[in-house]
Amino acid sequence: MKRGSLWSDGPRDGSFAAESNLASKMLSLRTYSYLCQSRAIVLDRVRPLSDEQYRRVFPIGLGSLAKILTHTMTGEWYYIQRMLHREVPPDDTWPIQESNPPPFGVVEAAWKKQGDETRAAIASIRDWDAPFEYRVATDAGVNQIVTCSAADLFTQLAFHEVHHRAQVINMLRQLGVTIDRDIDFNAMMYPRRPA
Fold first, then answer.
1. Which of 8, 12, 128, 145 has the CB geometry, 3.0–4.6 Å to 17, for a possible disulfide?
2. pTM
3. Domain boundaries, the chain
4. What b/e readout covers 90-104, taking b as 16+ CB neighbours within 10 angstroms?
5. pLDDT by residue (tens digit) across 139-188?
6. Residues 6+ apart with CB under 8 A from 99
7. Residue 100 gets which letter from DSSP?
8. How many Å apart are CA 37 and CA 92, to the nearest integer?
């Protein structure tokens, strides 16, 4: 079975392939815009917390807001490097690491700067469906070859953030902090008007 675009599992030839790639790019840019907008709302609720609250350990996910937010930000960077077919150095050499998360202000500023780089990377992708390979080592040290496409990696980037955002919202609730609006994609991205 041929791989299809984010929009279709149909054949890809001629102008359809070009239209499919344009549609994939536009959908990815729109999805990333949503991630940034919903992320800003969540980060607005994290910003007033004390450093102690930011680093408080919960029995959820990676254990703290600090680790989850750092992990999600560095995960985005990682997926974009892979989308661009770049080699990724070992994570213990990265300037920001989830094992030693920096203060919230550092993570927020780095993520904001990274957002521009992510948008530029998404805009630069020419073929969203072309499969390619890269090498990884599992946590157990087992070497593997991964086969995927830019569309696959962007899908992982988006779902990864939404998954961890749910953990962050859970932790915020346990700290007595709520988000006072719906941050689902349809609530934020669909035009609405009075009936």
1. 12
2. 0.87
3. 15-189
4. eeeeeebebeebeeb
5. 899 999 999 999 999 999 999 999 999 999 999 999 999 999 999 999 99
6. 92
7. S
8. 30
**Do 74 and 98 form a contact (C-beta atoms < 8 A)?**
yes
- CA 62 – CA 65 distance, rounded (Å): 8
Q: Which residue has the tokens 């998404």?
A: 122
154, HSE (Cβ side, Cα atoms, 13 Å)? 27
Phi-psi map region of 43: left, alpha, beta (phi>0 left; psi -120 to 50 alpha):
alpha
CA distances from 56 to 48, 67, 101, 161, 178 (A): 14, 10, 12, 20, 17
Rounded Cα gap, residues 68 and 111, in angstroms: 13
Is domain 15-189 classified as CATH 1.20.120.450?
A: yes
